[in-house]
Amino acid sequence: MRRPVAAGTATGGGVAVAGTGMTAFGRFPEAELTDLGGRAARAALDDAGMSPADVDGVWCGNVVGGGAAGQRALVELGIEGVPVRNLESACASGSQAFAEAVAAVRSGRSRCALVLGVEKTSGVFDGVIALDRDDLPSRLGLSLPGIYAMNASRYLWQYGADVAALAAVSVKNRRAGARNPRAMFRAEVSVDEVLGSRPVADPFTLLQCCANADGAAAVVLLAAGESPADAARVLGCGVASGYPIDAGYDLTRSRITATAARRAYAEAGIPPGAVDAAEVHDAFTVGEVIALESLGLAEPGAAWRLAPEGVTSAEGRLPVNASGGLLARGHAVGASGVAQIVELSRQLRDVSENPLPRAGVALAHTVGGGMATHDGIAAVVTLLARPAAVPAR
Amino acid sequence: MTASQAARPTRTAPALTSGTVYACTTLHVPLPGHQAPYTLAYVDLDGGGRVLSAVDRPVVVGERVVLLPDPASPAGVTASPERAA
Predict the structure, then answer these.
(1) Do B27 and A135 touch (CB under 8 A)?
(2) Helix, strand, coil shares, percent, chain B, to 5
(3) Could B50 and A249 be called an inter-chain contact, meaning their C-beta atoms sit closer than 8 Å?
């Protein structure tokens, strides 16, 4: 693999997450979108030791804010005149904003990029997310939980797995969330409580589904050489759009995820086996299981055993969603992808409340739904590393 | 062929089509305009192709179903387990 930019340029040493900022995620009906976004952005700039005047480009993920979220959120900071790109890819919005900003810094087009994910869902989504579409699945009543429930029904049948294994994903992620001050849910739950919560879409009960949240997350990207010495390095990103769920589509896999992952591993020049920890899109419990297999982090049909066996717990061999994931942190749709980067970057700098001292390379994954005829509209996979774990080229 | 194309009834389709449930769910929280609980399934048709269809009762993966013409459904058909016939 060749570097996208030759050594000796500003980014010859790669791109780093120079600063992070994040509000708590939760239900904040009184909070304005602009206030949430502004607070996260200011915290990220402070953490990076940069001022608003240093920012020369903004990438913002937002879904239900009604447009211009980036500009609106940054008025208070006095960020003016710089290009702002508002990006909507459903649950992958923040991740895709991050990937685009990385590319801009890597190419030298931006020196100091601010990536913001912000969402205010209170008052907009108060139940299950109904995709506002006129496609056939939506007209038949297939909700977003229903889409993932289809995956789950097939996965459990094909591999003879028990729904208790899916519940174990929620138990694990809620346990992690109990230690995360930014998480929406801070209480541990048991398998019985998960399975006993009210049914949403078989086999999912409520505690197997993430909750819509309000919140914001932001990161500042700089060339590694201009970043704090311990700042997490960006090894690579992969972005994909989706594939139709037609005859022969294997619902035990996420093809869109596999495509994004392939691109990320290629850009980073590392194999899946190099990944030590991951934040994956656990919007529903089965999402984590299918993501791990589609990302190459588990063999097909093997990932459902990982949570029950403790492999993916924070203390396990492959910690997954050690920040609590969407299931515990809450899903501030456009912000969740950036929140994953914030949490992993803090873990790789050893400043996290959910520490992962043995993780050198970490993976972030989101997939956005929005067309029920397809397996997603966007999937993004990002690979980060602590400086000492950056592979030699 | 997309799922929506597959589900579009054609004039040449036989009145009764059989298939096997590939994936399914019973929804307990309805989308607007629907009354919970209701069951949906991806059905792999015996003659090839896959359709998304409403099912008139809960089913399991691997179960045999027949697709009955249903002008009221956006898919033009509703599935029913063969065991119910």
Answers:
(1) no
(2) 10, 40, 50
(3) yes
Report the gap between the CA of A284 and the closest CA in chain B (Å): 14
Which chain A residues are closer than 8 Å to B60 by Cβ? 157
Edge-to-edge strand ranges of the sheet holding A277-279 = A84-87, A57-61, A113-119, A215-223, A15-22, A232-240, A378-385, A361-368, A277-279
Pair type for strands B38-45 and B77-81: unpaired
Q: Which residues of B touch A153 (CB under 8 A)?
A: 23-25, 61
Output the CA torsion A102→A106→A110→A113 (10° steps): 30
* pLDDT tens, residue by residue, A152-165: 999 999 999 999 99
What is the pLDDT, as a whole number, of residue A5? 36
SS3 state at B83: helix
Q: How far apart are CA A208 and CA A70, in angstroms?
A: 32
Answer whether A146 sits within 8 Å of B24, measured CB to CB. Answer: no
| Å between A173 CA and nearest CA of chain B | 24
ipTM: 0.92
pTM over cut 0.90:
yes
- How far is the C-alpha of A363 from the C-alpha of A382, rounded, in Å? 6
Query: CA dist A23 to A41, A180, A327, Å?
Result: 10, 12, 17
